[in-house]
Amino acid sequence: MPTKRRRVAVTLSDELDAALTELQDATGIAASAAILQIMEENVVSIRGLAAAAREAKSNPANAFQILQRSMMEALRDLSSAQLDLMDTTKGAGSAPSPKPKSKAKR
Question: In the chain, what are the domain boundaries?
Fold first, then answer.
């Protein structure tokens, strides 16, 4: 199907390929859709990493700290996106979680 969106070819490591296959088998979400969702939810982090890289080039003395801070923020955002994806797929086809038993009043 033709698209106006830019396509990018990515070579996956065996480990990443296996993880995406597991995700697809477990959720029914295609690997490309999962990758796209994670990336789109992290556009702000990607731009932050680019800004940090530019800042590190102009201030080499603090480059490590600048990039480390940006990587930690990106990892935090990625973890959040993964949890959102898990929440989304959890409701699609799984049985509802049992309600906690309420304690009887005395």
Answer: 12-41, 42-88
